[in-house]
Specification:
Layout (H helix, E strand, L loop, with lengths): L2 H7 L9 E12 L2 E8 L9 E2 L2 E3 L6 H13 L7 E6 L10 E9 L2 H10 L3 E8 L6 E4 L12 H16 L15 H12 L5 H11 L2 E7 L9 E5 L4
Length: about 240
C-alpha cells in the first residue's frame, strides 16, 4: 500500500488529540536576583494566579513561531532569542482538558527586561528563589510577597533555573544576561545570582580569564564613585 492510498483511508479522529501550548520563561538578573516576567490570569481556570506568558499553538503553526508570537504579543518582545527548555505533559496539569506545553527559555540583559516592563504594564517582574538542593521554589513580588502560580508554572520556573545552574560553568549561557560590555563584578554577580551562593572573587576571575571567553575592551565603566572598573566583552572560543 502506498502512502497516498494509506492517507486517503486514514481517520485522524481515531486517536484523541491533546492541545499544545507554549509557555515562556523570560528571565534576567534584576537587583542581583534571577527574575522572570509573569502575567496575572484574569479569567478561570485559576484566575488571579500568576502565570508565564503563554498561549495555544495554532493547528498550522510551528512551535517556534508560536513562541515568538507569544513573546511579541504578551511581553512586547520582538525577535526574542528562545531556546526550547522542556516539554511538560502531566495528565492533569491543566483542569480544562489534556494540554501538553512546550516551555521556552529566553535570557535577557537587565536593560531589555526593564524595557519589556515599561512597554507592557500588566507584566510583573517576579524574583525567583530555589534552594541549593532544588527541593523548594518560590516566586516573589518586588515587595517580597510569595506569588501564587498557576498550573505547573512553579515546576517550569524551577526547571529553567536548574538548567541554567547546570550549564553555567561549562557554557557561555551567562553572557546572555549581561550587556554587551560588562565588568568582572557584573559577571560574577550573574553567576552568584543563578547559583544562589557567593563566589571567591580572585578564583572566579582567574577561572573566567583562563577560559578565554572574555576580552578587555580598553575602556572603563562610567559614573563610578571610585576607580572605574575595566569593561570586558564576550568573545566566543575559536
Amino acid at each position: 500500500m502506498s502512502d497516498d492510498e494509506f492517507l486517503r483511508h486514514y481517520d485522524p479522529q481515531a486517536f484523541d488529540r491533546p492541545s499544545i501550548t507554549v509557555d515562556l520563561v523570560l528571565l534576567a538578573i534584576r537587583g542581583g536576583r534571577p527574575s522572570a516576567l509573569l502575567l496575572r490570569r484574569d479569567a478561570p481556570p485559576q484566575a488571579e494566579r500568576w502565570a508565564l506568558p503563554g498561549g495555544f499553538v495554532g493547528i498550522d503553526e510551528d512551535l517556534e513561531a508560536a513562541a515568538v508570537r507569544v513573546a511579541r504579543d504578551k511581553a512586547g518582545i520582538e525577535g526574542a532569542q528562545l531556546e526550547q527548555l522542556y516539554t511538560f505533559g502531566a495528565v492533569n496539569r491543566d483542569p480544562r482538558m489534556r494540554i501538553v506545553t512546550v516551555a521556552y527559555l529566553g535570557l535577557m540583559a537587565e536593560s531589555a527586561f526593564e524595557a519589556a516592563l515599561g512597554a507592557a504594564l500588566q507584566l510583573l517582574p517576579a524574583a525567583l528563589e530555589i534552594d541549593p538542593g532544588g527541593e523548594g521554589f518560590a516566586a516573589r513580588s518586588p515587595e517580597g510577597e510569595a506569588l501564587p502560580l498557576a498550573f505547573d508554572h512553579a515546576e517550569i520556573l524551577g526547571t529553567a533555573l536548574m538548567r541554567l545552574r547546570g550549564k553555567l560553568d561549562w557554557s557561555n549561557v551567562g553572557f546572555s544576561l549581561l550587556p554587551e560590555r560588562f565588568t568582572l563584578r557584573q559577571l560574577q554577580e550573574v553567576h552568584e545570582a543563578i547559583l544562589g551562593t557567593p563566589l571567591n572573587k580572585p578564583a572566579f576571575r582567574r577561572r573566567m580569564l583562563d577560559k578565554g571567553w572574555i576580552a578587555p575592551t580598553g575602556t572603563r565603566e562610567a559614573g563610578a564613585s571610585f576607580r572605574p572598573a575595566e569593561l570586558y566583552r564576550f568573545q566566543p572560543n575559536t
